[in-house]
Amino acid sequence: MSGDRAGDYRILHEADLRDYLAGLPDIAALLGGEPKSWAITEVGDGNLNLVFIVKGNRGGIAVKQALPYVRLVGESWPLPLSRAHYEYLALSKQAKLAPGLVPALLHHNAALALTVMELLEPHIIMRKGLVAATQYPGFVDDITTFMAQTLFFTSDLALSAAEKKEGIAAFAGNHALCKITEDLIFTDPYRVAEQNRWTAPYLDGLAAELRDDMDLHVAISRLKLKFMASPEALLHGDLHTGSIMVTESQTRVIDPEFAFYGPMGFDVGAVLANLLMAYFASAGHERIAGERAAFEGWVLETVEKVWNEFARKFLDLWRAGAEGDAYPVSLFAGEKGAARLEAERRAYMQRLFADTVGFTAAKTIRRIFGLAHNIDFELIEDPRRRAISEARAVRLARAMMVETAAFPTIADVTGAARKLGDWMPELSG
Questions:
Q1: How far apart are the first and last CA of the chain?
Q2: Which residues pair with 60 in a beta bridge?
Q3: Does the reported pTM lie above 0.90?
Q4: Is the peptide bond before 425 cis (omega within 30 degrees of 0)?
């Protein structure tokens, strides 16, 4: 259900939100009881928005409202409210393509930039679970289904050219969020930027090296160009472990406000980067040497399974009779055509993997030297231990970005990560 009953935008505080929800009969019935009895808690710990948990005597909901600025920075960084529209649009699309893997939408008000969703309980933000060394056996199947379904079915492999262009047009206005990505991921960490930060003084030298590394600057610029100029499929656009809520058996992907049509490897790389960062950060959370070894092994195994299962599911969808305008079946008739098309599918996936390797690296470096960091590293109390973990992650990321051809398989990535687990960097300070 959606509507614009509130008219002009205003930021809803607790009393305003209570009155607003009380005026929505379906939502009020879902919560149950008198509105004055509802418990309302603001829990937003992200960078952009307000998030409320509302509970009545019958049930609960989550309410998300976009602010007209970047919450992490403040009013000095304005941001269009239209991002709430694109998030609603993306969630609606994802719910159809990957049912059960995103929260159910209950209400949307475009004027208030507000969306009401099902309350996910007992799910927690995956990143918090990884910091606590929790393993999630259902994650691989769920996240690979989500990525394969949403990426394949919004690509030229599944759609007519007209359908694809209509999809691109529907999200083309989300350029302000894309601009954040273009600056914070692909540009700022490699130059002097006011909002950059890192674990000083220990990583001062490494930060300076990034600013002087022309091979790295070329590599990140190529990735930035691909991000801007390759609308391959509808991306979540911010698919990190802070945008995934989990239990041991369930996974829900949230917060697709950065959604747009871009290169598929960006979404896949975001997932892999955050898993690899969880791996490198793990040693910094140890109280006793080796106590997290089983968790670290699971993380690297999960990295491999995420790519391998995603690739398998994506190829299965393609082989199942794809009807998109790309690779028309009429050009690949007979055994000879089928064999040639299968070889091309394999080559396509190899190119996609190379993109994924590069974007994995880009997403890693930005979380260590850019504006917004991960609690995986940030919650390591000893800054020197934190810097060691971060330097290991950056060493792998630099190799993956500049020497991508040296990582032809996902096992090459995890093997390199494993070797760096004991590497001791030279720190500044």
A1: 57
A2: 55
A3: yes
A4: no
